[in-house]
Amino acid sequence: MINRDFFYLLTGQFVSQIGDKFHYIALSFWVLETTGSSAKMGAVLAASLIPSLVLGFFSGAFIDRYNRKIIIVGADLLRGVIIALFALLFYFEMMNFYVILLMQALLSVNVAFFDPAIPSVIPQIVDEKDLASANSKHQFVNGFSTIAGAFLAGIFISAFGYLWVFIINAVSFIVSAGFECFIHIPSTSKSALKEEQSGIFEDMKQGYHYIFSRRVLAILLFMVMIIHFFVGSIEVFMPVIADTITQDGAGTFGFFQAALGIGTITMAAVLSIKSIFGKEKTALFISVFSIGLLYVAASFFKGNETVLIFLFLAMIFLFGCCIICAGISFKTLLQKSIDNNFSGRVFAVAGSVGNAAIPGAMIIYGVLLEKYDYQALLMVSGLVLMLLSIISSILYKEEKDESVTQG
Fold first, then answer.
1. Are 320 and 263 contacting, i.e. CB atoms less than 8 angstroms apart?
2. How big is the CA angle at 144 (ends 133 and 307), to the nearest 5 degrees?
3. How far apart are CA 174 and CA 102, in angstroms?
4. C-alpha to C-alpha distance for 167 and 372, rounded to whole angstroms
5. How many Cα neighbours within 13 Å face the side chain of 379?
6. Which pLDDT band, with edges at 50, 70 and 90, does 299 fall under?
7. How far apart are CA 333 and CA 217, in angstroms?
8. Left if phi > 0, otherwise alpha if psi is -120 to 50, otherwise beta: which for 154?
9. Which residues contact 38 (CB under 8 A, 6 or more apart)?
10. What is the pLDDT of residues 15-33, one digit of tens each?
11. Domain range summary for the chain, segments of one domain joined by +
């Protein structure tokens, strides 16, 4: 059951994320068309990521210290204003590469505050027993809006041109902020005297001490890194495998991407209906172990082109299912394991760790796949991941047992 506050949050996210996908695709193609430089397109995409990645190690203290509703609404309003200015400059033909870099960096700064605030707010507006289901619904909206936004963006660009796509994105953020204004977020139990005595840098220090003094949190953050790392790895494996096993590598790669997307939204839909409340730890480690098992199994795939395409489509679909199950599980475990007064700091660090792991994996696997066969890398990667999941599960269990004994 979706309560009123969570409904407004989901609706706002759905609207803004479709608009954001419009902007991402339109901007990428416009930069590529006008500059003819894939390097400049890459620089624009980097400007969208790097500020939020770096600021994520610090923004959590602000999320925990100040009103989270104001942060969420304000971030969406600011993004709407920035993109409206973007559309205005585009209309008057005053847009250039460096202005685009600046605006993408400003949007990324907003993301550094907005993204960690959302999982911090969900436990405040949803009962604990409904957390896993709520996270699943939120993930489903994210996945569906990404796929729908990508599909619709191409149609809108062809039919109306780039300007209207940018306008739609600006409006989507403002509409999203409007929905978020109706959310009632209960205040956390903070000591006003303590807030006055401690500064923002002391809050940051306390946040990192809170994270690293608890082995459960350290293990969960390690799993965040592992999950995102293998999301990055599959993005490198897919085009290489598609090009190796088929004549039409680009077309096969498109099918692989579709299988991954369908897997993610399918699992999110299933978990939004069938709750894993109380089983999050088991779901997390089994999902990560299963990803390793899929990699090992894929290293043995043989057959003609049609058979290989079918096998890899099935493997990638299941990979998407496992990634989402693991992601929802660790998010729910974090929400249940931490004091909500520290959740902004924990989720901000988790976001930065995850965002750093994906491009890191892309670079590492890009280099390795130039030297080694993809089947050998799938085998080694899968075995390492299975081992890491077993070790992490044992360490997490020991820590939980110690906590019970001490209690």
1. yes
2. 105
3. 21
4. 46
5. 8
6. very high
7. 9
8. alpha
9. 32
10. 888 888 888 888 877 887 7
11. 4-183, 206-402
The burial class, CB within 10 Å (0-12 / 13-18 / 19+), for 339 is exposed
Euclidean distance between CA atoms 274 and 298, whole angstroms: 29
Name the token pair of 256: 């692989």
Residue 271, class by beta-carbon neighbours within 10 Å (0-12 exposed, 13-18 middle, 19+ buried)? buried
How far is it, in rounded angstroms, from Cα 351 to Cα 314? 29
Q: Which of 344, 368, 269, 295 is nearest to 119 (CA)?
A: 344
Residue 355 has pLDDT above 90, yes or no: no
What topology does CATH give the domain 4-183? Growth Hormone; Chain: A; (1.20.1250)
**Contacts of residue 216, Cβ cutoff 8 Å, sequence gap at least 6:** 337, 396, 399, 400, 403
Task: For residue 183, give the amino acid letter.
Answer: I
CA–CA–CA angle 144, 145, 148 (5° rounding): 85
Which residues, at least 6 apart from 170, have a Cβ–Cβ distance to it below 8 Å?
19, 80, 81, 83, 84, 86, 87
Q: Residue 406's pLDDT is what?
A: 43
- How many residues are recorded in the chain? 407
* Tokens 């899968």 found at: 382
Q: Are 131 and 272 in contact (CB under 8 A)?
A: no
Q: How many CB atoms lie within 10 A of CB 151?
A: 12
Q: Which residues, other chains included, contact 360 with Cβ-Cβ below 8 Å and sequence gap of 6+?
A: 229, 232
Sequence-distant (6+) residues with CB within 8 A of 289 are: 385, 386, 389, 390
The answer on pLDDT for 251 being more than 70 is yes
CATH code linked to domain 206-402: 1.20.1250.20
Nearest to 111 by CA among 55, 62, 58: 55
Q: Is the pLDDT of residue 189 over 80?
A: no
CA distance 252 to 229: 23
Output the pTM of the full model.
Answer: 0.86
Same fold, 4-183 and 206-402: yes
Report the 10 Å Cβ neighbour count for 31. Answer: 22
Residue 13 CB coordination number (10 Å)? 20
